[in-house]
Task: structure prediction
Amino acid sequence: MATIQRFDADGSNQTTVASGARNPTALAVQPETGELWAVVQERDGLGDNLPSDYRIRVQQGGFYGSPYAYIGKRPQPGFANLAPDKVEATITPDLLFQAHSSLLDLVFYEGDQFPAEYKGSLFVAVKGSWNRSIPTGYKVVRVPFKDGRAEAITRISPPGFGYRASGAPRSGAAPPHWRLPRTGCCWSPTTPAARSGASPTRAPPSTLQYRRRGRGQVRSLNQ
Result:
């Protein structure tokens, strides 16, 4: 339950790397350090603001709380009393996201399409909430890294992506899909202009632009 598993390439030698991560939706290896990172979708039932979804540097044998605790050693009502030792053993996540963000995917950027400071950053696709009274999510965020550790989160947009052969990220949790080039816009795929297929409005080059691509040109990595 709530585990990250490791297999040899032929499917043999299954082992548990970490446990207690309720729904680890995606994994990525940091190129510089070889460390394994994961994004995790958390549980419902504790209101709009708890518990936070999160990103972790996966520790061998680590336990991340589910179902006994959340955000570190905070006890989960109805479960914590069943295994207090598990609550005490829970590792606090490395980076928290707003509750019910529904983290979908992550990738470390090693291409040359974007400015040099983007290299080595982590892109996280945030699918968005379905049961929060004030919706959240529906974006891509950038997490800069310095000396192998994460810094502040920066919003980009929109959710769900992988890489094109050129090294530029491609995006789309469901068609239509989007390519993320270097220059910018602030255009949501939910707006009437986006739904009609119109081109996005240009914005300062400090942000990112995404353009509509045909289904045959950009393949979604997420369903």
